[in-house]
Design brief:
With about 200 residues, the protein is an alpha/beta fold. About 20% of the residues lie in helices and about 30% in strands.
Length: about 200
């Protein structure tokens, strides 16, 4: 009897997950169309994507995006957010994977091919606010600094890391979980910490 009840519960759960998936696909299609997001072939989005701003967003072929707890229950945010401020641009290369992360671009964020971005990561190409008190409070955020961010092909960004303005993460490089990256990391290296520093070279 207990096994029968468990089997029935599993079937109901499977049906509910299927219904959620259909709703999510419709929701994402409408959001991407409304926000004019360019999507390549075979893009997989699990959950409801959050898209903000009127800038340019391009998602390459075969990209996988987790944007809910059930897609990747490692903790942290429940959605992936792609936010273009003013004329910012976000480009995500083919076969890359993102998981419940936030990308904000006021200038440009470029993610290469085969990149992995872990849960709850943040990528910001702008300071959002002016550094000096006068520019920030009196002049209404005058002189806000923004610089392009580039994450090269094959890089891996560990969960809960933050990539800040002007940073380039090298090809096949790894950023350790929980790092705050303020400087460029060359190709094929492991960086980690706050602020992130060189740890070791990778053997390709």
């Amino acid at each position: 009897m207990r096994n029968m009840l468990r089997g029935s519960a599993d079937k109901v759960k499977a049906v509910l997950i299927g219904c959620f998936s259909v709703f999510d696909k419709l929701y994402n299609a409408l959001v991407c169309k409304y926000r004019k997001v360019s999507r390549g072939a075979n893009v997989r989005i699990r959950g409801k994507l959050c898209v903000c701003g009127r800038g340019s967003i391009t998602i390459g072929d075969g990209v996988a995006i987790n944007t809910c707890r059930r897609a990747n229950p490692i903790g942290g945010d429940t959605r992936t957010i792609l936010n273009t401020v003013q004329h910012g641009t976000i480009r995500i290369g083919a076969r890359s994977g993102l998981s419940n992360c936030t990308i904000v671009s006021r200038e440009s964020v470029t993610i290469g091919e085969d990149v992995r971005i872990g849960g709850s990561c943040r990528i910001y190409d702008t300071d959002f606010h002016a550094v000096s008190f006068e520019d920030r409070i009196i002049n209404g955020d005058h002189n806000v600094v923004s610089k392009p961010v580039v994450i090269k092909d094959g890089a891996f960004i560990g969960a809960f890391s933050i990539i800040l303005k002007g940073v380039t993460v090298g090809k096949h490089s790894v950023v350790g979980a929980g790092s705050v990256v303020t400087k460029n990391s060359p190709d094929g290296e492991v960086w980690g910490g706050n602020p992130a520093k060189f740890i070791k070279k990778l053997e390709e």
